[in-house]
Amino acid sequence: MYEKFSPRVDKVVKLANEIAREYDQEYVGTEHILLAIAREGTGLGAKVLRGRNASEAHLRKEVDKLIKKSMEETWVFGRLPGTPHFKNVVATAIEQARQLNSQEICTEHLLLALCRESGSVANRALKNLGMRYADVRANVLEQVPSNPGE
């Protein structure tokens, strides 16, 4: 792949691992990426979420409702494996970056990919909060020209 992760996305992936550990989960899922984008807070993905009134606390409340029954206590050390949805989101983020002519994968590409990953916890949380791919993409496109690489 010719694109690379932006430093901000590297930070989001690390935060996603931390958030998965906070949930005592032994995998990194889409819900952890979504919460990490919000927690990191400085990328275009986070800006779009804030513009749609989706703070980390609001997102966490929605995610918690969706995964409450599947939570179980585990002890995990080191890097956590990604779920199939996580891997699909990364692949879709790469495609989103290509479509937007970006040289690196940024938080807005991850957010768009989360909006497209049907059946994932993050996708359901975003839909429950009224966020659809077309609307989020429009929000991103409004801001991409003036904020490249966020």
Characterise this structure.
With 150 residues, this protein is mostly helical. The protein has a single domain (4-143), classed as Orthogonal Bundle (Double Clp-N motif), CATH 1.10.1780. It is 61% helix and 3% strand. The protein has 8 helices and 2 strands. It has helices at residues 7-22, 30-40, 44-51, 56-67, 84-99, 107-116, 121-128, 133-143, and strands at 4-5, 104-105. The longest helix has 16 residues, at 7-22. Mean pLDDT is 80; it is low at 69-79 and 146-150.
Topology:
Blueprint: E1 4-5, H1 7-22, H2 30-40, H3 44-51, H4 56-67, H5 84-99, E2 104-105, H6 107-116, H7 121-128, H8 133-143
Parallel strand pairs: 1-2
Gyration radius, rounded: 14 Å
Number of helices: 8
Mean pLDDT: 80
Largest sheet: 2 strands, parallel
| CATH fourth-tier homologous superfamily | Clp, N-terminal domain
Task: Estimate what percentage of residues fall within beta strands.
Answer: under 5%
State the end-to-end CA separation. Answer: 19 Å
Structural class: mainly alpha
How many individual domains? 1
In CATH terms, what is the fold-level topology? Double Clp-N motif
- Which descriptor suits the 3D outline? globular
Instruction: Record the strand order, biggest sheet.
Output: 1-2
Query: What percentage of residues falls in helices of 4 or more residues?
Result: 55-70%
Work out the oligomeric state of the chains in this entry.
single chain
